[in-house]
Amino acid sequence: MSRGFSASDLAILQRNQKRFRHLVKMEFSTVLYLTTAPADVTYSSDTYIAANQILSIGDLSENVVPTVQTTNITLSGIESDNISIMLTEDFINVPVTITAVILDTDNSVLVAVPFKYLIQSCSFDDNLDSGKLTVNWTLTSHWSNFDRVAGRWCNSRDQQYFYSGDTFFKSADQPLRSARWGQK
Questions:
Q1: How far apart are alpha carbons 41 and 109 in whole angstroms?
Q2: CB atoms within 10 A of CB 132
Q3: In CATH, what number is assigned to the domain containing residue 75?
Q4: What is the value of pTM for the model shown?
Q5: Neighbouring C-beta atoms of residue 165, cutoff 10 Å
Q6: pLDDT digits (tens, 9 = 90+) for 44-98
Q7: Which of 24, 26, 134, 141 could cysteine-pair with 69, CB 3.0–4.6 Å?
Q8: Dihedral pair phi/psi, residue 76, rounded to 5°
Q9: How far apart are the C-alpha atoms of 56 and 3, rounded to whole Å?
Q10: Do 160 and 125 reside in the same domain of the chain?
């Protein structure tokens, strides 16, 4: 997909392949900004920290057909403040944006392509020998919002969940007696 790149963006993409990096924005209560670049990168008024915490980022892909895309991010050498955020907060469906960027020689962003995900799961590997904690996040596209309830249900329990005290459907599961329509 072209994503509407201009001719100059396409020319930059063709000549600057070795300056390809990732910017990762994890939207916990305290937003984490990380990058795979060797130095900090400022993009959209946010500074992404180059702390060598990102070990790997899985393949980033998109499709014109609405399908669930998944990828992984593996972090290591994480600062203790960030570890406490990851351990204490509910992380399911936390938005994560991975922006693939082409950087100029001064680390300014020439071309940026964002990919939006939600956190699906997380696993920790605490290596006692090396003293390092590795965190692997499994991300999935917004097409898989696990909190969303699809469809409309016509029963009292679901009605009470969304509208406490509403008893409209209290008799919905009981069979009706024969009803006559029209004149007697």
A1: 8
A2: 12
A3: 2.40.10.10
A4: 0.66
A5: 6
A6: 999 998 877 777 687 777 666 666 788 888 888 777 777 777 778 888 889 999 9
A7: 141
A8: -150, 160
A9: 25
A10: no
